[in-house]
Amino acid sequence: MNFNLNSFSKNVICESAASDTVIETAVDGDKLDLYVTATDDKVKFIELEWNFESDNGIWVLGDAWERSYGELRFVKLADNGRCMPWYFIATDKSECFCFGVKTQPKAFISFRYTAEGIKALVDCRNGNCGVELGGRKLHIATFIYKKYNSADVYGCLCDYCRVLCDNPILPKESIYGGNNWYYAYGKSSYDEIIADTKVQVALAQGIDNKPFEVIDDCWQINSCEGPWLPNEKFKDMKKLADEIKALGARPGIWVRLLHNRDTAVTQDMRILRGGKRQYLDPTHPAVKEYVKADIERIKEWGYELLKHDFTTFDLFGAWGGNLFLTENDTDSWCFFDKSKTNAEIVLDLYRLIKDTAQDMYIIGCNTVSHLCAGLVEINRIGNDTSGREWEPTRKNGVNTLAFRLAQNEAFYMCDADCVGILADNIPWEKNKQWLHVLSYSNSPLFVSCSNKLTDEQKNDLAEAYKVFQKKHETKPVDIFENFTPSVWEIDGETVKYEW
After folding, report:
1. What is the pLDDT of residue 52?
2. 3-state secondary structure the chain
């Protein structure tokens, strides 16, 4: 491959013919900075293209917009052409090269790599409209190209992810414990959370690092939406947090900050999309204050971890790979503040949450991966696992852990989701393997279980919690042959799983 970072073409797409948009670039070694300025134009997209011939035998792996959905894999260049958000790695298995953008860009950026070259699509929209910059000069992103004379693909990707993020914020200790979702599925109570906490404390006996007990969707008045006040089964959330601490665990809680039935939220505070006003618009000044008040209340109750969910879906009305497919964007809609790009709006929201939460740990779920890096300690990197059936765990959990673990401690801590234990729905020999690889992964380890555990499960969980407290060297091996790699190298030993 003969790739020259400084040899590219560029094009801008606005709502109407471009008249005053200025695109500027600055190349310095392996970095390219991209800027846009416009006064009257409403900028939608910028296209960059590097033309060169490439070998169809190259293998390529891209990333995902937010969580992945079991779709991550290496594919031959001849079979590629897919949209690859944020960055990609390419290899002929003797050397590697990576190309992408640094975290916290001001646009949603994706790549397509074919035998004819590389195309980058820079999405500057506000909602589905062009952004109104009003003469503002915006530094959109820093593109980074890096070549490695190495066949260690996983090692190269780990290094590249560290190059992409200058400011990860990481927990002071390993994060593990309970989350009640995958056995309770929204049906729980104050007393059941106390029982769950006692289970976690018993499993972590002898470990100085206290486990978390995270209360997922179940505690608030309405299912999966606000107001963020306790229902009759919970009543006093401060008292519950205090009791969790007294038992020897750390309290965490789930929220969906942009979905709320509160009548105090007026219609102008909601996004108008598809003719409906449903989700809160975080660019509206009143919504910012409302979200801050919700977080401050939870912080005052004494919760030490905040898991905020659904921000991507509530902002844009789509999941994962369906985000920003321009052929599907037929509805013309925008945010209250039309002067910022979608990426800037997401960044502002994540900063607001983190600045308000302060020393609370943040888990982002359904958060935009490249935008939450540096603004959350923990990010849910894949779609849901399950306590009911094995396939979602195999597809979503194993796949995302294998192909995004390189981001762990580079962008944030990677949460590949829970070990869900619900009666005997999933054979323990399957779930035990998922528990094993998570316990050696150096990524967060959450288990969703009630007090109805067998002695074998108790012993295996307690051992996994002890293993988890130490650092390990873990990586997937059969990444070219398998979408859910079954061969892993752990602390220098080969481990084979039967997913």
Report:
1. 93
2. CCCCCCCCEEEEEECCCCCCCEEEEEEECCEEEEEEECCCCCEEEEEEEEECCCCCCCEEEECCCCCECCCCCCEEHHHCCCCEECEEEEECCCCEEEEEECCCCCCEEEEEEECCEEEEEEECCECCECECCCCCEEEEEEEEEEEECCCCHHHHHHHHHHHHCCCCCCCCCCCEEEECHHHHCCCCCHHHHHHHHHHHHHHCCCCCCCCEEEECCCCEEECCEEEEEECCCCCCHHHHHHHHHHHCCEEEEEECCCCECCCCCCHHHEEEECCEEEEECCCCHHHHHHHHHHHHHHHHHCCCEEEEECHHHHHHCCCHHHCCCHHHCCCCCCCCCCCCCHHHHHHHHHHHHHHHHCCCEEEEECCCHHHHECCECEEECECCCCCCCHHHHHHHHHHHHHHHHHHECCCEEEECCCEECCCCCCCHHHHHHHHHHHHCCCCCEEEECCCCCCHHHHHHHHHHHHHHCCCCCEEECCCCCCCCCCEEEECCEEEECCC
